[in-house]
Known about the structure:
Elements: H1 6-14, E1 23-24, H2 30-40, E2 52-57, H3 62-76, H4 80-89, E3 92-98, H5 108-128, E4 132-136, H6 144-149, E5 157-167, H7 179-182
Helix pairs in contact: 2-5, 3-4
Amino acid sequence: MPSPNPAATEFLNNRRSRPAKTLGAPFPDRNVLEKVLETAARTPDHGMLVPWRFVVLDPASMPRLAGLAESHAHDAGADPKKARKQFDLGNLVVMVVASPKPSEKVPELEQILSAGSLCLSLVNAAEAAGWGANWLSGWPSHNRGFMTDLGLKDHEFIAGLIHLGTERMAPAERPRPDMAEITDWVSE
Length: 188
C-alpha cells in the first residue's frame, strides 16, 4: 500500500491561481526564483529532450512588452488596449517557451504537452514557495510577430506567461467540474 502525503494532497486540493492583477510587491528575487524554476523543471519530459525554456521578464521590461503587444495588435486588427493589458499590469513574468526538438522517438505533440505541464508546474512551485502565481497567454502570445520580437526562434512559441508576486487579496473559490460528468470508467 502506498504511503500518502496528506500535506501535498491538501495543497493540491486547495491551490488556486491568483489573478495577475492582484499580485504585487515584493516579488521573488533571482535566488528565490532560480529555486522555484528548478522545482518547476521537474516536469514530465519523455526522452529528456527539455523541449522548453524560461525567459524571465522583470518589471523594467513590461513597458516595452506592452508597446510590442499594442503594435502587433494594430497590425493584426486586434484590440490594442486588451493586447497590452497584462504587460501594463505585469511586474515579474516568467515566459515559458515551448521549444520542440527533432526526435524520432518523441512526437512534437508530447513535447508541447510537456511545455504545458511545465507551466502548471511553475504555478504550483511558486505557490508552494509562498508566492502568488497566474498562468496567462492571451492574444500576443499567439502572434508570430510578437514572438519574433521577443527573440523566439521560428519553431518556438509561448506556452504561457506566468505572473508572479505577493498575493494582495485571496481569490474567491470558483466552481469545479462535476467529476461524474467528465469521467468515464472503462472496465472491459
